[in-house]
C-alpha cells in the first residue's frame, strides 16, 4: 500500500509539472497571490491565478483565468482569448477588449484549501460564533439525512489518519490543475459547478465525520453514553472552539481539513471499488 501511495504522489507531481510545462513560457501563474499585467505589457500566454486576483492593464494574447478571486480589466486592457472567473467576478472597463468569452461563476467564499488566519480578532466574534453554530446545525442535518456515509468516513479516518491526511493533500493538489484545465478548455465550464459542489460536499462530509469521531472520544473519556447525533454536535463544537485559538487553531484547522477530506476521498474510493467487485 505504501508503494501505491508513493506512486500517487509521484503522479500528482508529474501532473502539476506537465501542466506548468504545457503552458507557454510567457504565461503568468500565481497561487495565493495577485497578478498584475501593467499597461504597455504583452503576455503571450495565459494569466492563471488561484486564490488571488488578476488586474489587467496591458494585453494578454490567450486567456485570463482566476479561481477564487476577481478579474479587473482596466481601460487599456486587451484579452485576445477568454476571461473566466470562478468564485469571483469580472469587472470590465467600457474601453477594455475581450476577444473570447466573458464568464463569471460566483462561488461565495468557498476555498479549495483551508484558509489560515493568524490574528485573534479575525477568529473571535459574533460572526465566528454564528458560523460555528451554523456548521453544527448543518452537520447534524447531514448526519440525520445520511448517517451511513458519515459513519463510513469516520471509520476510515480513525483506522489510518496519516494515510487520510496524505490522500487529502493529494486531492487538494489535484483540484488545482483539474480546475484550471476545465476553465481553459471552456468546454469544461458547465462541469465546474458540479466539480466544486463535489469538492465542497466531500470537505463537509469529512468535517462532520471528524466531529462524530471527536464526540465519541470525548464521551468515552467522560464515561457518557450518548447518541451519535449528540456526538456530532459535541465534536463539531469542540473542533470549532479549537480553531479559534490564535495560530495553533489555524494549524489544527489545516490538519483536520486535510484529514477529513482525505478520509472522504478514501471512503468514496472504497465504495466504488466495492461496487465494482460486486458487479
Task: Give your account of this protein's structure.
With 279 residues, this protein is of the alpha/beta class. It folds into two domains: 24-105, no CATH class; 120-278, no CATH class. It is built from eight helices and 13 strands. It has helices spanning 2-22, 120-123, 126-145, 147-159, 161-185, 192-221, 228-242, 248-278; strands spanning 28-31, 35-37, 42-43, 47-50, 54-56, 59-60, 64-67, 71-73, 78-79, 83-86, 90-92, 97-98, 102-105. The strands form three sheets. A five-stranded parallel β-sheet has the order 1-4-7-10-13, with helices on one face. Strands 2-5-8-11 form a four-stranded parallel β-sheet, with no helix packed on it. Residues 1-24 and 107-124 have low confidence and may be disordered.
**Helix fraction?**
55-70%
Question: Largest sheet, described in full?
Answer: 5 strands, parallel
Shape: elongated
- Average pLDDT works out at 77
Give the topology, please.
Layout: H1 2-22, E1 28-31, E2 35-37, E3 42-43, E4 47-50, E5 54-56, E6 59-60, E7 64-67, E8 71-73, E9 78-79, E10 83-86, E11 90-92, E12 97-98, E13 102-105, H2 120-123, H3 126-145, H4 147-159, H5 161-185, H6 192-221, H7 228-242, H8 248-278
Parallel strand pairs: 1-4, 2-5, 3-6, 4-7, 5-8, 6-9, 7-10, 8-11, 9-12, 10-13
Amino acid at each position: 500500500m505504501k508503494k501505491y501511495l508513493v506512486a500517487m504522489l509521484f503522479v500528482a507531481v508529474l501532473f502539476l509539472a506537465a501542466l506548468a510545462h504545457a503552458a507557454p513560457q510567457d504565461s503568468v501563474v500565481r497561487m495565493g497571490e495577485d497578478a498584475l499585467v501593467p499597461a504597455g505589457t504583452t503576455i503571450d500566454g495565459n494569466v492563471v491565478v488561484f486564490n488571488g486576483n488578476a488586474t489587467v492593464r496591458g494585453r494578454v494574447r490567450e486567456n485570463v483565468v482566476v479561481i477564487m478571486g476577481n478579474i479587473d480589466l482596466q481601460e487599456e486592457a486587451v484579452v485576445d482569448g477568454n476571461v473566466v472567473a470562478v468564485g469571483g467576478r469580472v469587472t470590465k472597463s467600457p474601453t477594455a477588449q475581450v476577444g473570447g468569452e466573458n464568464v463569471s461563476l460566483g462561488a461565495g467564499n468557498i476555498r479549495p484549501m483551508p484558509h489560515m488566519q493568524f490574528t485573534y480578532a479575525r477568529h473571535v466574534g459574533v460572526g465566528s460564533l454564528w458560523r460555528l453554530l451554523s456548521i453544527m446545525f448543518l452537520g447534524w442535518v447531514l448526519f440525520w439525512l445520511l448517517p451511513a456515509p458519515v459513519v463510513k468516513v469516520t471509520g476510515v479516518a480513525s483506522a489510518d489518519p496519516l494515510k487520510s491526511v496524505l490522500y487529502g493533500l493529494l486531492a487538494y493538489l489535484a483540484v488545482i490543475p483539474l480546475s484550471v484545465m476545465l476553465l481553459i478548455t471552456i468546454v469544461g465550464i458547465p462541469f465546474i459547478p458540479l466539480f466544486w459542489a463535489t469538492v465542497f460536499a466531500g470537505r463537509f462530509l469529512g468535517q462532520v465525520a471528524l466531529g462524530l469521531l471527536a464526540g465519541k472520544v470525548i464521551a468515552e473519556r467522560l464515561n457518557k453514553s450518548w447518541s451519535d447525533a449528540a456526538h456530532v454536535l459535541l465534536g463539531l463544537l469542540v473542533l470549532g472552539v479549537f480553531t479559534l485559538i490564535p495560530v495553533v487553531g489555524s494549524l489544527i484547522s489545516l490538519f483536520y481539513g486535510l484529514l477529513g477530506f482525505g478520509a472522504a476521498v478514501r471512503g468514496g474510493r472504497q465504495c466504488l471499488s466495492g461496487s465494482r467487485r460486486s458487479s
